[in-house]
Structure formats: structure tokens, C-alpha cells
Amino acid sequence: MSQGVRGTRDFYPEEMRIRNWLFEHFHSSAKAHGFEEYDAPVLETEELFTRKAGEEITQQLYNFEDKGGRSVALRPEMTPSLARMVMAKAGALAFPIKWYSIPQCWRYERTQRGRGREHYQWNVDIWGTDCIEADAELLSVLVHFFKSVGLDSDDLVIQISSRKVLEEVLGNLGIEGESFSQTCIIVDKMDKLPEESVEAQLAELGHSPDAISTIRDTLSIRDLNGLENSLGKSSSAVSELRSLFTLIEGYGLSDWVSFDASIVRGLAYYTGPVFEVRDRAGNLRAICGGGRYDRLIGTLGGKNLPATGFGFGDMVVMELLQEKGLIPNIGSVVEDVVFGMGSELRGSAMQVAGKLRQSGRNVDLILEDKKMKWIFKHAERCNASRLIMVMPDEWSNGNVKIKDLNTGNESTIPFKEL
Question: Is 257 helix (H, G, I), strand (E, B) or coil?
């Protein structure tokens, strides 16, 4: 039983240090923009995640019946839990709210590079305002993070569109309601499936060859002028996107973004601007994605409230950082290694370690009798800066011996001055 469940990960200390480093950048980028952290249970009612039958996410649930006969599921994403929390206290919250979290999420799907069956996902959301400035703020959070870990606009591109583009195109074709939602799910897979497979699935929904051709032509547009020519100058999708790109320019983020009409996002609850982040080399799946979802609470039985946000998994970005050589070599947290020479000095060594810890140092105390060669090797593995030795002669005079592991210098100082 030396292996865990397929699709899950163990984090040994050296891997945990890297994970903490990544999460610290998630935390600092969100906090730099005034977001506050929240959390929710990993276990939720199954009903929370089954809003729309046919969504890919409903087919990937880790769901089961608990001992009380209730249908529950491990969360596959955080947004529905957030919506539930907002609904519960909507009358008491001061909107807009800017919240973030780094939850562990579970999806039963085929494991592949950058995707397991469990992952951590940085979620950043703004609730209670329909202004386009909120969507621009999210993009600023993303770029702040990318810069903080050493990535730049030559490495990444934020591809932006709006669900309103597809709404207008399909609306002109008379495609609405459930057919619209199903079309979005299929279109979201266009870059993952063969062209004939996508066309076959669209045809199964009852779309004519002309309609399919119109959908394809529109979703191939890569600039706003071309979109305006297609949808007309009165298009609300074009107007909204132009406003967003103007704000992006004001933030100084223009080099990071591009318009791509094919970005629609598969989840049914998106309503406005949507985006995905991809590596410019095209070697990886989407690094993160998000958008506006003003009608989510309505699908859960509450009163709709404007909202926008993104989900950012921890796995794909680590692939990119590894590829770019940007993952730092992070040593152990140990600063001092303390040992007592002989079992009779074990209590004295504990006294020394305790004093150092009280002063704020990170201290590893050698718990057994070990040879000096082993102790020096252990201190090297820990990447400690000092070795504190409690030796019989020195301790009898109230002193300890210190070896600076960076310079090799040794000194003897009174314990009281340590």
C-alpha cells in the first residue's frame, strides 16, 4: 500500500515548501488588491453542483450517500459554495465584496499532464457590482501574480471574449434556452476535439449546416473591429468588450491580453466577459479561466446578484514554471540545530533549544545520541545557518559552543547571552 489513490498527490516536505511558496504568491496578489480570504467545507450537498444536467462537471462528481442517507459530494469547484455562503448572509453583507480562497477540489476525470483528480484552486471573486471595472480588477490580480513569480507577457496571454457574443449570434439564429447552454458546452471543447466531431455534436442539437457555419465563422474572429462588422455597431457585446479593453489599457496590461471570440467557457452560469490564460507556446492546457456570472444565485433558488471571478488551478502553472526554470530552490525552515553531547546533557540541550525558540528562531533539536559526522551532515541537509553544541566543559561554565555553518567560524558564548 505504498501508493495513494490514482489521480491524487502526496506532498513531501520539499514539495510542500514549493506549494507554500506558490500559495504565498496567491495570497499576496489577492491581498494587494484588497481581497479577503474565506473558506467553506470540502463536502457539500450534491444538489449544489447539479444545476444543469449535461454540464461536464456534473459527470465528474465524487458523490455518494452518507450514513444519514443524504446525497453529498466533494466539491469540484468553489463558486457554488461561495454562492451558497453569499445567499445565506446576503442581507448582512456590505457589497461589493472582494473575497478569495485556495480550496482543494475533486473531479473524477482522466488524469493527464497538468490535471489530476484533486487539485488546489485559487479562487478570486467580486460580488455585488455589475460594473466592468470589476472584471478589469480581476485581470490586474492575475498579472500581479504572474509578475511576482517571474512570468511575463512573452510567456502568457489572457484571451478575452464575452458570452454575449455567442448569445447574440445564437439569438439571431433562434437558438435559446437549453439549446444555447448545450451549444456553449460543445463550443468550449472546440480546441480539444476534431472539427468533424464538434460539427456532429452541434448537428445533434438540431443546428443546420448554415447555423454551424455562422457559429464557426464568428468564433474565429480575433479582433474587435471584425466582431463589430459581424454583429453590428449596436452590439452590446462589442460595446462591453471595448469598455473592458479601454480599462485594461488604463491598467497598463494591454501586452498581456488579446481578443478571441472562441473563448466561451463551458459552465452554464457565465453571462458576460469571459477569459482564459494560456502559455503563448501552446504547450499546455488553460492555466486559469473565469468571467462574469450574474445569474448563478438564481439557479440555486435565490435572488440574482452580479458577480465575476476566476479559478486558477495549481498544477498547470507549476508545469509552466518548471519549464521556464522559475521554481526556486527552497531549503528547510530550520535555522539552528542544537545537540547535547551525551545523554546527561539532553535536558540542557532542551533548555538551549527552548530559549532559542522563545526568541523566534526555528530550531531542530537532535533527540538521540549521534556521531558528529551525522550531525554535521544533518545540519547541511536542513540548510541550517548555525550549529549550537552543548558540551560538558563549556556547559559546566555556563557556556555553549556555536559553529557558523556559512563561514565555518566557531565561538563560545554564555548561555544567558544566547
Answer: strand
The count of residues in the chain is 418
In this prediction, residue 88 carries a pLDDT of: 94
**Could you tell me the CA-to-CA distances from 66 to 8, 61, 75, 118, 284 in Å, in that order?**
22, 15, 15, 20, 37
Sign of CA dihedral 90, 96, 102, 105: positive
Q: Are residues 96 and 224 part of one domain?
A: yes
Residues 72 and 152 in one domain: yes
CA distance 410 to 418: 14
Count of CB atoms situated within 10 Å of the CB of 369: 12
Is the same domain home to 116 and 244? yes
Q: How many domains does the chain have?
A: 2
Task: Label residue 196 by pLDDT band (50, 70, 90).
Answer: confident
286 and 359: one domain?
A: no
| Residue 6 located in a structural domain | no
Q: Which of 400, 368, 369, 371 is nearest to 387 (CA)?
A: 400
CATH number at residue 62: 3.30.930.10
Whether the pTM exceeds 0.85: the reply is yes
Do 318 and 342 lie in one domain? The reply is no
Which structural domain, as residue segments, surrounds residue 304? Answer: 13-323
Distance in angstroms (rounded) separating the CA atoms of residues 235 and 147: 35
Residue 350 shares a structural domain with residue 319: no
CA angle 67, 70, 74 (to 5 degrees): 90
Task: Report the mean per-residue pLDDT for the chain.
Answer: 92
Beta bridge partners of 116: none
Q: 55, 83 in Cβ contact below 8 A? A: no
Measure Cα distances from 363 to 20, 342, 368 in Å.
20, 19, 15
Q: What are the CA-CA distances from residue 272 to residues 105, 134, 181, 268 (Å)?
A: 25, 12, 14, 12
What is the Cβ-side half-sphere exposure of residue 320, based on CA atoms within 13 angstroms?
26
Angle in degrees, CA 154, 155, 157, rounded to 5: 85
Confidence band for 195, pLDDT divided at 50, 70 and 90: confident
**Cβ atoms within 10 Å of 396's Cβ, excluding its own:** 8
Q: Is the pLDDT of residue 121 over 80?
A: yes
Q: The CATH number of the domain where 352 resides is what? A: 3.40.50.800
